[in-house]
Write a structure and sequence with these properties.
By secondary structure, the chain is α/β, with parallel strands linked by helices. 38% of the residues lie in helices and 17% in strands. It has a seven-stranded parallel beta sheet. A two-stranded antiparallel sheet has the order 7-9. The longest helix has 14 residues, at 243-256. It binds iron/sulfur cluster (SF4). The site of iron/sulfur cluster has 11 residues, from loops.
């Protein structure tokens, strides 16, 4: 057991005792309301979806096919593995009716060896009728909704062109929780204009909400994004963390998050050829080991 915080393995063991569980990423061909003009245009300034979509999933394949391909990918090593269908790319509750969405999630959840569903989305794309459907599915197999919150500062949210507010995060978390659906928040450390204290403030506010998990990562300046363009021109106040500073900050974050909330991870590791800064060249487990060594002291 991780002595410092509840990690994702422990969270999974609580939900699925005795099982080994792996996420299977799915790209179901969603778009994003912050790109197509429904909510905003241009997307969040740091976003290039190609940097976080695994190679084995393609929106050209049906969801069921992607699940099978994902299982083949992992099954060779661990035949007894169970899976969470993870609707990851873009905004996975947007642009289709609740009935169509629920049909898709349900079919994914019914695939052999799939024990639950994770749905990544924005706080402003969770209408009540969809939540009713998710609550019903959650009675059969666990559903986790992962909300991109990023920061509790509305000024920063504006600056990074998120086009939602922290109040919308609070509202969506409250509505999901009231229906018994587990909620994870995605947060980014080191956004433009923010320092370590700002990140801790966001983590504190997140932990005051009825959430089940937090997924953190350092801001990466990724190629093909407005952030890189503005950073190179010196138009935006952003200083990527050094590894040492980020380790220090993560140690503070661990001490801020209560044990009942899972910390899913601390590091984003997009393909190195896509990242302009910071270039640490670390895998998630390597960073975690460094952090744990630090927490021992
Ligand atoms: S981070 Fe999410 S909300 Fe922002 S542009 Fe990318 S897909 Fe859209």
């Amino acid at each position: 057991m991780n002595p410092y915080y509840k990690d994702f393995s422990e969270y999974m063991r609580e939900m699925f005792p005795g099982m080994k569980v792996q996420k299977l990423s799915i790209d179901a061909g969603f778009t994003c309301p912050n790109r197509d003009g429904s909510i905003g245009r241009g997307g969040c300034i740091y976003c290039n979806n190609a940097s976080f979509t695994p190679g084995y999933c393609s929106p050209n394949d049906a969801v069921e096919t992607q699940i099978e391909k994902g299982k083949d990918f992992f099954r060779r090593k661990y035949p007894e593995m169970k899976y969470l269908a993870y609707f990851q790319s873009y905004t996975n509750t947007f642009g289709r009716s609740p009935d169509v969405l629920m049909d898709m999630y349900r079919k994914a959840s019914e695939s052999e060896d799939v024990v639950g569903v994770i749905i990544g989305t924005r706080p402003d794309c969770l209408p009540d009728d969809l939540l009713d459907g998710l609550a019903e599915l959650n009675q059969k197999k666990p559903v986790i909704v992962e909300i991109g919150a990023e920061t509790s500062s509305d000024d920063t949210l504006r600056l990074i062109n998120r086009n939602h507010t922290w109040a919308q995060v609070e509202d969506s978390v409250g509505r999901l929780h009231s229906k018994g659906i587990r909620v994870g928040l995605h947060l980014i450390a080191g956004l433009p204009g923010e320092n370590g204290d700002d990140v801790i403030e966001t983590v504190r506010k997140a932990c005051a909400l009825p959430i089940d998990s937090i997924k953190m990562h350092q801001l990466q300046i990724v190629k093909g994004t407005p952030l890189l363009e503005r950073w190179e021109k010196g138009e935006i106040d952003v200083e990527p963390f050094t590894l040492e500073d980020y380790l220090k900050l993560c140690a503070r974050i661990v001490k801020t998050i209560p044990r009942h909330i899972c910390i899913e991870r601390f590091l984003a590791s997009s393909p190195p050829e896509m990242v302009a800064a910071p270039k640490w060249g670390l895998k998630n487990y390597q960073f975690t080991n460094m952090l744990h060594n630090r927490l021992k002291i």
